Amino acid sequence: xxxxxxxxxxxxxxxxxxxxxxxxxxxxxxxxxxxxxxxxxxxxxxxxxxxxxxxxxxxxxxxxxxxxxxxxxxxxxxxxxxxxxxxxxxxxxxxxxxxxxxxxxxxxxxxxxxxxxxxxxxxxxxxxxxxxxxxxxxxxxxxxxxxxxxxxxxxxxxxxxxxxxxxxxxxxxxxxxxxxxxxxxxxxxxxxxxxxxxxxxxxxxxxxxxxxxxxxxxxxxxxxxxxxxxxxxxxxxxxxxxxxxxxxxxxxxxxxxxxxxxxxxxxxxxxxxxxxxxxxxxxxxxxxxxxxxxxxxxxxxxxxxxxxxxxxxxxxxxxxxxxxxxxxxxxxxxxxxxxxxxxxxxxxxxxxxxxxxxxxxxxxxxx
Length: 367
Ligand code: UD1
What we know:
By secondary structure, the chain is α/β, with parallel strands linked by helices.
C-alpha cells in the first residue's frame, strides 16, 4: 500500500539515559519514510529535570504514548508498565519492540513483547557487572535472554553473550549509541550558556560528581562513605555534585551533611556534557557517565566495586574506587587529581551504531 511504513518499531523508554540513547535512532527514523517509530514513555522518570528537558535539548519528538507509571517498588512499577505496554501493543501492532539498557522500563518492555510473541531488540546487550544484587543486572540478563536480536556495544559484551549461549545469529556488534549521541551533541553544547560560569568554576580545577545507584544510596554505610570521600576531596579542590532525587531523599533521611561539596539538583544533558568536558575528573557511580567522561577524554573515578565498562579501566581512563570506607575512598579520589590520561583506545565503534541498528532491523523485520 502506498505511503505505508514497511517497518513498525515500538520503542520503550522511561529513564534519563534511555532518552539520550533513543535520540540517535529517532533522528534517523524521522528522515526514513519506510520506518515508523512509536515511542512509549513509561513515566519511570517524570520530573521535567529528569525527563522533559532531555527531549527538548536532544530534539526528540515527544513520545506517542505516555504510560505515567511513576515511582514505586520494583515489582509495582514493573507490573504497571507490563500491563500498559501489553495494552499498547494490542492497540498498535509492531513488527519489533526496541528497548535500551537495563532499567525497569527495559525489563517491562522486553517481557511484555516476548509474551505476546513480538520480536524484541535489545540495545546495549551483553553488559555485565556480575553483581546480581544490582537491579540493573537482573534487568539486563532477562532482557538479553528474551531478546530476538541483541545489539552489543563492545567486543567484551559480544563475547559475553556467546559465552551465555545466546545464538550467534541473534547478536550483532554495532558500537555504542551513546557515542553516536556524544559526537552529535558535542557541537551543539558549545552554543548553550556556560555551565562553568553558572557554578563559579574554572576549567580543569574542579571535580564533577554524581551518585544515584540503589546499591550506593540504599545502604547508609556506603552512602556515608561516599559523602565523606567527596567531602574529603572538596577540602582540596572544588567538587560540584549533581544530586539525583533518590540520593536527595536518602541524604535527608539520614541527616547527612555534604558541606563543603557544592550541590545542585539534576542537570540537563547539555550542562552535564559541558561540566564533564571541563572537569579535572568525574567521580560517579553511573554507568553512562563513565563513558561520557571518556568520550570527552576526561578521567573518571567510579565509586563502585565493579563496572560493566571494563575496557575503560584497562585503558587507564577509569579507576575503580570501592566505597569500603571514607578514608580509602577519599585517598583514591585525591590520587586521581594527578592521574595521567589513559591510552588512546576506541572501544565504542565509529559513531554509527544507530545506523547499523536501523539497517539490521529493516533487514530482519520489515514487512
Ligand atoms: C533508574 C534505573 C537505573 C538508571 C537510572 C538513571 C532501575 C531499576 N534503575 O534509577 O538503572 O541508571 O534510572 O537515572 O530502573 N524520582 C523523582 N523524580 C523522577 C524520577 C524519580 O523524584 O522523575 C525519585 C523517586 O523518589 C523514585 C526515585 O527517584 O522513587 C528513584 O527512581 P527510579 O526510577 O526507581 O530509579 P533511579 O534511581 O532513577
